[in-house]
Design brief:
Layout (H helix, E strand, L loop, with lengths): L32 E8 L5 H10 L3 E8 L2 H14 L6 E5 L3 H5 L8 H4 L11 H6 L9 E3 L1 E2 L2 E6 H6 L16 H15 L7 H9 L19 H18 L8 H9 L4 E5 L2 H9 L7 E4 L12 E4 L7 H11 L2 H11 L2 E2 L8 H4 L11 H9 L12 H17 L4 H16 L1
Parallel strand pairs: 1-2, 1-3
Antiparallel strand pairs: 3-9, 4-9, 5-10, 6-7, 6-8
Helix pairs in contact: 7-9, 8-9, 8-16, 16-17
Amino acid sequence: MLAGAIALVAAAGLTACGDDGGSAGSGSDGGQIELTIGTFTEFGYEDLLKEYEDLNPNIKITHHKTGQGGPYHQQLLTKLAANSGLEDVVAIEEGHLPDVLDKPHLFNNLADIGPSDVKPERWLDWKYEAGTAKDGTWVGYGTDIGPLAMCYRKDLLEAAGLPSDPEAVKPLFESWESYFEAGDTYVEKTGKAWFDSTSQIFNAMQNQLDVGYVDEDNKLTLESNQDIRDNWDQVTAAGNRGQTAKLVAFSPEWNNGFKQGAFATKTCPSWMLGVVKEQAGPENAGKWAVTDAFPGGGGNWGGSFLAVPKQSQHPKEAAELAAWLTAPEQQIKAFQKTGNFPSQVDALEEPQLLDFTNDYFGNVKVGTLFAAQAQKVEKAQFKGPGDGKIQENATSPALQAVEKGKSPEDGWEQAVEAAKRIAG
């Protein structure tokens, strides 16, 4: 991955950071310490938190889990502003991380309070750098990353006379041009949608650019970056040709769309595998497949960090928990449960990861597949403050408006105006 980082330099081995489980709570008075951790959607931590409590009898953990990332991060920023109510350990998604890095004084520097054997070399270079504020504060330990692949329904492609084998489909997904061309064929043959929503496709395209919605000077890029507009025009045109199922991601209708075969392809960062399996259900096992081809060569969509706010009453113990959860062994376990792909250098060489197969997707070696996709990412996209809000509250609603009949041009103006309000 990555900017030379996946030259896979040797990091501190898999035994680093509290792997013996005995360090948490050290230096306390020996009484039980209560820690809280806040996450959203699926981090795969439920069993791991119980394991940590077993390893550290003086630690009691309460897990606050929110269903969707948008409301979670809005609450997080509200609690930060009020300087009250935050958990000891908080998860932060990469799209919302800039809003946190802009306030490093509200977080503990993990370089100061974290276990001494947890070094930046544990992570891919760009993942570590993404969690560090401009003033040098190490705000967040990296959890997962989201290397992109393509998921698709084999039976639906076959019904349209398209190839369905994971190798044979690669030409369809070689570029965005070939992807949308295949979509036209699919729509013509079946009369059904090729993908779930224009906003999901647009988000994947956007995440392939070097700079997100806000640049390093905190300036909005929608009007200045022609690539964003070109992506907009391309995806809305495909949508208007019948390729979109017009579903809002993570809505009940979208969830049901997996079961009903409402669309044939799905942009699949690694964490999406768990979503597909859960929503499509056991009745569709073996119908879904995943290939390491992706239009434009790949990219990263998603991934999070664990941070310790200054509000924590037990910052040292909180940092020890966060460090343990983001150790390679634990992140591999989380991947095996949810598909969240590890960001730790050592994890990417582990047979436990590389040999891991997913029976729901035809017993493909998803560990090896996503490790290869990860290596196509050269650096993290720069995201300025408000990036995640722009995606959720500007471009996605505007694309949904286009799906409901608004012209692509008017939709673009809606997105730009909403983004301006968010960016201030």
